[in-house]
Amino acid sequence: MTVAPLRKTGRYAAPTHAEPAELSANSHRATARILSRTAQVRAPIRPRGAGTSATDCNSSADGTTLSMTGLDRIINIDSHNMTVTAQAGVRLYALAEALSRHGLELIGNHEMMGRTLGGAIASPGLGPGIGRDAASLGRWVLSLKLVTANGRTTTVSSGQKNLMGAIRSSYGVLGAIVEATLKVRPITTFAATHRKLGIDQFCEVVDRLSNADVGFRFYLMPHRDRVYLDLRRHASDERSPHSTPWRFKDWGETTVLPRVCKSLNRILPIHSVRYRLIDSLSETTQGIVNSRFVNAGSNAMTRAGVSLASSARPLLYSTWCFPASDFSFVLGAYRKFCLESYERTGFRADVPVTGYRVAKDASALLSPSFDEPMIALSTASTQTKGWDDHVIDLADFAEHWAGVPIYSQSRALRAEYATQVYGDRLDVFRRIRRQLDPQDRLLSPFMAQYFR
Ligand SMILES: Cc1cc2nc3c(=O)[nH]c(=O)nc-3n(C[C@H](O)[C@H](O)[C@H](O)COP(=O)(O)OP(=O)(O)OC[C@H]3O[C@@H](n4cnc5c(N)ncnc54)[C@H](O)[C@@H]3O)c2cc1C
Predict the structure, then answer these.
(1) Alpha carbons 84 and 99: distance in angstroms, whole number
(2) What average pLDDT does the segment 397-422 reach?
(3) Which among 102, 156, 174, 195 is placed 20 to 30 Å from 347, CA to CA?
(4) Dist CA 35 CA 23 (whole Å)
(5) pLDDT computed for residue 383 by the predictor
């Protein structure tokens, strides 16, 4: 039995009096045995996938963390009906690779490919897909097997709209997902272009882009007044994309840059000098990795975030969603917030902020884009000193600008605010949760503040 590491999550202080335990399940039956009420397993029990969430949603401070990564079998790929059935611990990159051998791909342009299928269904698995494809991965689930808090297995299909809607983005409080069948599609090429813009220039186009049939992702550097925009459209011509330039881009953005930032934070004590150098390096990286060869791609070829998910200390980050309809105003205010906060505290995010559009998606009760398209804005840092205070300020900013939180990714989230945002949908979700887990066996104190 290994001891799971604890993370602080801003306003929530985890109790420290008991040793957390970690168990691993490598089969459906083992999961059912661990969750069964007769097993001598200390509650609360929290399922965990790759553990890439930013909050304590995937661990149990004084109960048991149940690792699902041993359930790593791809059970069936049906090229005729275009579906894939896999166990919950399968990593997205392994799924994408297996599908590509059959000429198929996941729907939506997903990143952080080191996460698990179960984690991407049980929390909003978002990515910069094109048009309506930019929904959560869970939307494409046709059926799944769930082991509930008493160890019983239930199979749920997309026809059971209410129950399936509650299980998608249920953060593991309704049970452990052990297997899922997803709709997939033939590999489809998209065209990609890259632009370098000032923040005001980007504000002029972002509202229009949010309503167009495109996908986009951007890197924002508030202290350089710079936006690097990666725009994706359905390809109108016959292109044959190459994976090598994308791999190089992923490696530069998600591996090399964070590592260099971390080293510079260690060796350069004067923060004005350090940040100037880090910003220059970020700009250079963008210039190099977005070469003219990164002009076409497909969902089958991204491997972004594979190494981050297996790293001992992944990036610190906090993500909030903002309504896409008036994102230009939010962005202007966010820039001011970053400059003011740096001036006041001497702390700022060292790696560029990333953002992408998320389509309207009402397939999950707790979908962050249930009512309208959103822009997910993710602030990340490689340095811990100052981070906890920064995420509290960021949460205050987000509340002020009607930010929609994600329970697994928005740090320092106040329970009252989350209740206000998710409103009636959260009431329904809580009722379903009480029916499925009347003894709160899956409810850690961290989760209880939101879902009891
Ligand atoms: C650098 C970086 C980039 C990221 N980029 C993105 C991004 O582009 N888009 C995005 O959406 N997210 C992103 N994330 C956040 C994170 O990767 C996702 O939230 C991911 O879906 C979590 O998957 P996981 O396997 O790590 O699950 P975990 O973090 O382990 O768990 C997430 C939640 O799901 C529950 N859970 C996990 N497995 C199961 C299961 N089998 N059954 C029931 N419940 C389960 C857990 O209890 C927890 O509540 C990023 C994170 C990092 C560090």
Answers:
(1) 8
(2) 98
(3) 195
(4) 11
(5) 87
Q: Which domains does the chain have, with CATH numbers?
A: 74-187 (3.30.465.10), 190-415 (3.40.462)
Give the binding-site residues of ligand 1, using a 6 Å CB cut-off.
46-53, 57-58, 68, 88, 111-112, 115-116, 118-120, 122-127, 171-172, 176-177, 305, 308, 314-315, 317, 408-409
Q: How far does residue 12's CA lie from ligand 1's centre (Å)?
A: 19
**DSSP bridge pairs for 363:** none
Q: Give the residue from 309, 190, 311, 296 showing the smallest Cα distance to 246.
A: 296
CA distances (Å), origin 256, targets 52, 260, 312 = 19, 6, 16
Furthest CA-CA distance within the chain: 62
- Tens digit of pLDDT for each residue in 28-57? 999 999 999 888 899 999 999 999 999 999
* Per-residue pLDDT reduced to its tens digit, 172-210: 999 999 999 999 999 988 888 899 999 999 999 998 898
Task: Reply yes or no on whether the pLDDT at 269 is more than 80.
Answer: no
Strand segments (E) across 148-301: 153-157, 176-183, 185-186, 190-197, 215-221, 226-234, 296-297
Point out the ligand 1 atom lying closest to the alpha carbon of residue 47.
Answer: 47
